[in-house]
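Sat 14:20. Reprocessing the chain from the morning session after the first attempt stalled halfway. Input below, unchanged.
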Amino acid sequence: MLNIERLSNMNHWWKLSNVKQEFIYSLKRNLFKDILNHLEIRQIIGIVGLRRVGKTTLFYEVIDYLIKKNINPKNIIYFSFDEIDAKLEDLFKIYEEDIIKKKIGEEKIFVFLDEIQKLEDWQNKVKIYYDLYPNKIKFFISGSASLNILLKAKESLAGRIFYFYLDLLSFHEFLMLREKDITKMVKNPELWKKEIKIELNNYILKPFPEIINSSEEISSKYIKESVIEKIIFKDLTGLFEIKEIEVLGKIINIIASNPGLIINLDDLSKDINVSRQLISNYLYYLQTCFLIREIKNFRGSLKASSRKLKKYYLLHPCFALALNSAEIGKIMENIVMFDTKAVNYWREKEKEVDFILKNNKEILPLEVKYKNNVRIKELKGLLKFMEKFRIINAIVITEDYKKEEKIENKNIKFIPLWKWLLKSR
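Finished this time. Tokens:
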């Protein structure tokens, strides 16, 4: 039950007049600056992303910034619907009577609502206060479910909200939080090659801010229990009618064992003895909570893609490593997908290219061959794609092999993964 004591515990700055330093990072995520650029506008700031990526920490950092800009700490309220089931009107009633001791609207307040998707009909409830107190309430909301957050607010909050996506750590952010000298590494990567490759291995296992310095065992346990299991057993069951929860686990494990798998719904439904529609629904649900991503078969332009033959990856290979033992090449293919945010691959008959990217206005095919001896016959799919679509440049991601070659009048650039990730930002 919500009361002043529980609310006060969530808002320790009301007593201390500052945010406890253990709640924030000395080095800020890239999104922090973007949020600050939107503080002065009226619109709601919405942050969506996977569980544990740092949405709450980002809120604390913005609160810390506001207090240092001389905003009265009591004019800032934070509440997490993940911790307490409460009504928005009850929250504001306690806040008015016991904290600010005046009616909302007399002074500007900053309201941070965490895991908002757990508040029933949240978009209409927030809209009432937004419209009733123009420029007197600045809302910040967060959620771990893209479907619930984005689609339900599309009509009710049209023009009233700006969305931001907070991802898992990029390799740069990981190095930054590990207090590595990125400038020196980028300037002379060959000199720092050994250190960069060590950090790359750490990064693939630990891309969550809370575990960057944890052991492999603790990291794996954290990812399985604090992320995957909570999404399956708490988030998804709260958002959707899940009748066969074990099927969700089977689907994730299948993808974890072979990231980049082309899933045939008919075949998979027979294999695990459930309906084709159930498989389709569950794949969709897993995407809404950011556990998996699908990419579509390229059909001549980035807008024209086949609805069939979708490939599925886990959002990040850390999930595959925590759940299963996929081969190293597939793990590295998954990290390239995460880094590039590719939406297309290409497959025609037996020929295939891992990812099709858009580089400015040009189409750029990218193949992952995590080895140091790449033979031309292994690039048949890449060369076929380039010939068919008259593409002259392509990239092949390798383990350590670095070279630029001209093959059949086509320019192929071989780049080691560690160097690609270091310079990709």
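The mean pLDDT is 93.
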